[in-house]
Amino acid sequence: MPTTTRTIAMLVMSAGLWPVAVMAARPEQERAHVPLLSDQECWKRLPAANGGTSPLPSWARALAGSMPRTTAALLRVDYVHRARNPLDPKLRARMRWVAAHANRCAYAEEYAVADGRRAGLDDEAIQALRRGDFSQESPAEKAALEFARKMTVDSASVTDGEFADLVKQYGEKTVAAMVLSMAYANFQDGLLLCLGTPMEPGGPLPPLDVVFAPGVLISRPSALPPKTPPSRPAPSVSPPSGKDRISDDVEWTSLTYDELQARLERQRNKVTRVRVPSWEEVERGLPPGFTTPNRVVWNLVCLGHQPELAAAWETYLRTSAIETGDKLDRVFGQSLFWVTTRAMNCPYCMGHCEMGLDLAGLSKPEIAQRTRLLAGDNWSSFPSQERAAYAFARKLTRTPWAISAEDVRDLERDFGPERAIIVLAAACRGHYMTRISNGFQLSLERDNVFREWYFTSTNATAQAAAPAPVPLTRPEMKKMLEESKRDVPRLTPPPPTPEELATAPERRTPFTGTYRVRNLLPRELRGGYFFLMDGRTLEMDIRALRNPSMPANSASSTVDPSRRVDPDPNMTLDYAFKAMLFWVVSRSNNCVYCMGHNEKQLAAFGVSEDRIAALDGDWGQCSLAERAALALARKLTVAPHTITDADIDAVRQHFTNQQVLEMIGIVSGFNAMNRWTGPLRLT
User: Fold this and answer.
1) Do 480 and 470 form a contact (C-beta atoms < 8 A)?
2) pLDDT grade, residue 541 (50/70/90)?
3) C-beta of residue 34 within 8 angstroms of C-beta of residue 65
4) S-S: 293 plus which of 74, 125, 324, 453, CB 3.0-4.6 Å?
5) Residues 453, 6: Cα–Cα separation, whole Å
């Protein structure tokens, strides 16, 4: 264990004086290290479907500008850990406080206390917690709190015996929840301290249960193309030359590269501290819609014992990879993680770093050269900005409370403000991974277990079968709509019947096109599997109302006159307005096919490109009536169970009861349309 401030703190703690001693040294977090968006600015960026007016924690307001989707995923992780954690909520709050206290994170301490109050901790219990007086705790609770402390200050120091005793008292699944909880606590504390997170007005806030637009949080793994090497050669390193800008560290070089490799070999022979569930058992317990790519020991243990907690974190990793992957070089990212694994004494994650460097395109000699240099006292072989990032990660691991605003400014000077936040978050992420690995003492796999996902033909099938990505910007959406023209429908429409071919000369409706997938249904159901309350009959084709203002016998009309039906006079909502509602519904469902049709229809109605784009962001240029209707359409799509009287009343201020009914009816019908065109992946 390094002779650092953290070690000294650990020795003081072990003597029984740790609560008072560490509290006295805790610095105040007077201001944020990065700019904070307002709640309103944040909600404009977050792809949320509900909760768009709730106050947000300061850390979310710090991250949303650079990483809105990643922030959304972290809000979900935070909610799951605080509101759905299987640990006893009083014990969870106390363990969370112990971790925050050891990390000297005042913000997290106050959140832990607030969660404890909501769980039923009284003032006396909270004051005892603040004093470090655990005399009234049961032996099992004392063991859990000591486990939380050791997992924070030196997770590698938890002994097999201590872990086994904890399992005897609580059972494997509960102890697994403790490990995952402490991993998240230390990741979050690192992030909070790096951001210099101030307590927000009205904080600490309760857990925030936000429903996000479908597809925003990535529940399927992302991967490289099958059997394809990286798109560019991996960066090479040369022998050290010149003076390193990073100060030498005697402890860092006390373990040689060869000794570190020997630790990896010992980790391969370790027996994981909990039962490793079978693949079939893991699959049965996965949350709906969540998929995992391989049989890594990490996945089997975490998802097998605590699927909800583990899936929330894995979803964050996948979402972040999609959003920031092009801004964080793979070799650099794995090297940054390697530094954390070395500082945390985590051979399992160090072994996975080597696997990651392999996937990034480095040969075995190149991996050995890079990690040998990282293990040394001269990092001059690496670019200057990388050296600074490695030093930042090492400091964060040893003394997270010492990260200053100037440290963050240095990252910003090297990487720019946006990439600095991404690098900072990546450095914090290692504190979750290493504590999982050290807590369970996972058996290190001998082969590169990630290759079965990254470089197999089954990966290509998985990618093709995956949901369409959720575009975040207008250019991304236009690109996705264009690419969807090359999609292959998942069901093949039947050929036209002889009767249809015989009537073709008299009719202008073609017998080609993916809309004919509906003909797979029995004839009596082809027009009636959804109902649109806008005056259409069950028999009429959707093409009949593409341009309702054009005369039915117009020579230039693309509408088949024989199929035209005039709208019901009781249905009074404007067609362009209804197309706007349809667009919002389709966007919320990420239905590419329907979004494309609505884009074309809105343009035909004279709606400008800027106004269409505004539907996806700031509704400020919309009227109050339109805003109320659009909000109802989105909420009715993604969270219908949360509709309240207030939602309906907000719309009734601008529309008649008949129009509100029409609105609810057509939004329901639009959802029905999305739910068959989307899954069939119509071109």
Assistant:
1) no
2) very low
3) no
4) 453
5) 39
Residues 523, 636: one domain?
Answer: yes
Domain co-membership, 478 together with 400: no
Q: Is residue 312 part of a domain?
A: no
Greater confidence (462 vs 683) lies with 683
Q: Directed axis angle between helix 417-440 and helix 384-398, to 10°? A: 50
Assigned domain for 236 exists: no
Answer whether residue 626 shows pLDDT above 80.
yes
Where is average pLDDT lowest: 568-572, 578-582, 638-642? 568-572
Residue 657 within any structural domain of the chain: yes
> Tens digit of pLDDT for each residue in 308-357?
999 999 999 989 988 888 888 899 999 999 999 999 999 999 999 999 99
**How much is the pLDDT for 500?**
62
Q: Which of 289, 676, 219 is nearest to 469 (CA)?
A: 219
120 lies in the same domain as 191: yes
- Tell me, yes or no, whether 565 and 634 share the same domain: yes
Cβ atoms 355, 448 nearer than 8 A: yes
Per-residue pLDDT at 505: 57
* Contact assessment for residue 527 and residue 540, using Cβ atoms and an 8 Å cutoff: yes
Q: Which residues lie below 8 Å from residue 202, measured CB to CB, with a gap of 6+?
A: 55
Q: How would you label 29-50 residue by residue, b for 16+ Cβ within 10 Å and e otherwise? A: beebbbebbebeebbbbbbbbb
In DSSP notation, 337-382 reads: HHHHHHHHT-HHHHHHHHHHHHHTT--HHHHHHHHHHHTSS--TTS
Q: What angle do CA 162, 309, 312 make, to 5 degrees?
A: 145
From 412, 446, 464, give the residue that closes a domain. Answer: 464
Single residue among 423, 444, 464 that ends a domain in this structure? 464
* Contact (Cβ atoms closer than 8 angstroms) between residue 354 and residue 337: no
Q: Is the pLDDT of residue 558 over 80?
A: no
The mean pLDDT value for 402-431 works out to: 94
pLDDT for the residue numbered 53? 77
451 and 505 share a domain?
no
48 phi and psi, to 5 degrees?
Answer: -90, 150
Taking the CA of residue 479 as centre, how many other CA atoms within 13 Å lie in the half-sphere pointing to its CB? 8
Domain containing 613 — which CATH number?
1.20.1290.10
Domain identity same for 349 and 478: no
Name the residue among 26, 62, 10, 110 with its Cα closest to residue 402. 26
pLDDT, the chain, mean: 80
Residue 344: exposure state from Cβ atoms within 10 A (0-12, 13-18, ≥19): buried
The Cα–Cα gap between 530 and 382 comes to 61
Same domain, 357 and 457: yes
Residues of the domain holding 351? 252-274+327-464
What does 238-277 look like in DSSP terms, one character per residue?
----S--SSPP-TTGGGS-HHHHHHHHHHHHTPPPSS---
Residue 212 phi/psi, 5° resolution?
-105, 155
Pair (433, 522) in one structural domain? no
Q: What is the DSSP string of 402-436?
A: G--HHHHHHHHHHH-HHHHHHHHHHHHHHHHHHHH
Give the contacts of 326 (CB within 8 A, at least 6 positions apart): none
Overall number of domains in the chain? 3
pTM here?
A: 0.68
323: alpha, beta or left? (left if phi > 0; alpha if psi -120 to 50): alpha
* Residue whose C-alpha is closest to residue 64's, from 54, 74, 53: 74
Calpha distance 137→131 (Å, rounded)? 13
